[in-house]
Structure formats: C-alpha cells, structure tokens
Amino acid sequence: MILHVTTGTITYMQNLKAKHADVNLAAMGQDAVLYYENDSSDSIFSSRQSYEIDNTSGELQEDRPTSIHFIPVPGNRKEPMYGHLADINEIMENTNGVMSYRIGESLSEDGFIVLIQWARTSTYNDFKQTNSYKNYLTAEALGKYRTAESLFHKSVSSKLYLPLKDNEADTEDEF
C-alpha cells in the first residue's frame, strides 16, 4: 500500500479536497494536510511525498486527530532505522487510544513517516508524556539516525492535525 501526503494552507487544501472527495483532510490553524492510500506510486497531488507502508493497523478516517512524524534518514543510516520502526510498530499496537497508524518509507527521498490517528487529542497529549514517545519519536531520539551532513537538510518534524470540525482556525479571516 502507498500513502500519499501533501501539505499546504487550509484554503488550498479544501479546494483540492473538493476536487478529490476520497482524500482525508485535517488541519491545525492555517496548516493543513491531505492524505490518501492506494496501490499506485502515482499520486493525484503534484507536490507530495509518497510512502511504501510497511506497518499498518486500522482504517484511516478523516474525523480523528492525526499526528504525522516525518523522519529524514540518509541512506547509510537506514538499516538501523528499520529496527527502530519495528519497535514503534510494537509500541503502537499496545498504546491506548491509537485508532489506526501507518509506518512507511519514502519512495523518492531518504526518509520515513509515522502517521497515527488517535481517539482524542488528549490521548495524543498523554502519549507525548510517555517514555515510549520520548525514546522513539522525539527529535532527540531520532537524532542517532542522522549524519553530520543530514543535520543541515530536512529536519525531523512532528505535527498534530485535527479534523476540520475541531480546528479552531477561522478560515474566513484570511487575507
């Protein structure tokens, strides 16, 4: 399975969603993400990241808080990252409040994704206080898979996106 992800402003992503009803949309303020799964490496998004999903659980649904962790890892550090991701998979299987997740490797760049859908935002916030989060998904924990050269390129990023109905941003006030 391939997961396709693109990010942008909420207004732009809402326009794309109107053209492609089968994609999932979530936002945090004015930042938004669109994502969907299929069996093709081709994507409907012109600017996107696509990931070969290695570990999966549950069905992705648009009405759930979604945390996305983008993890750039250079080619010579990928091998140890596979074991780390296997550990994350095991942790996700045993974490209360995880409704679904996807763990995969980028098709075009050196990197990985961990996308997790939560029962509630508070569940995600609780998880961020655990040793599992601190030891596996923080920038500090993932830093051991980086090289000196990669520190000057894309950085590890994590963001929580909410279903549109829960996003507090008022898109009518855009300039």
List keywords for this structure.
about 180 residues, alpha+beta, Alpha-Beta Plaits, 8-stranded antiparallel sheet, about 25% helix, globular, disordered C terminus, Signal transduction protein TRAP
Write the layout of secondary structure elements.
Elements: E1 2-9, H1 10-19, E2 24-28, E3 31-38, E4 49-57, E5 66-72, H2 78-93, E6 98-106, E7 111-118, H3 121-127, H4 131-136, H5 139-142, E8 157-161
Antiparallel strand pairs: 1-3, 1-4, 2-3, 4-6, 5-7, 5-8, 6-7
Organism: Salinicoccus hispanicus
Protein name: Signal transduction protein TRAP
CATH class of the domain at 45-165: Alpha Beta
DSSP strand content: 25-35%
Question: Strand order of the main beta sheet, please?
Answer: 2-3-1-4-6-7-5-8
Counted by DSSP, the helix tally is 5
Q: Provide the helix percentage.
A: 10-25%
Average pLDDT rating: 88
| Class based on secondary structure composition and strand pairing | alpha+beta
Say what the CATH topology of the domain at 45-165 is: Alpha-Beta Plaits
Gross CATH architecture of the domain at 45-165: 2-Layer Sandwich
Q: Note the run of SSEs as H and E.
A: EHEEEEHEEHHHE
Described by the principal axes of the CA atoms, the overall outline is globular
State Rg.
Answer: 16 Å
Q: What about the largest sheet?
A: 8 strands, antiparallel
Which spans of ≥5 residues are poorly predicted at pLDDT below 50?
169-175
N/C terminus separation? 39 Å
| Count of strand segments | 8
Protein name: Signal transduction protein TRAP
Q: How does this model look, in words?
A:
Helix content is 25%, strand content 34%. The protein is an alpha+beta fold. It has a domain at 45-165: Alpha-Beta Plaits.
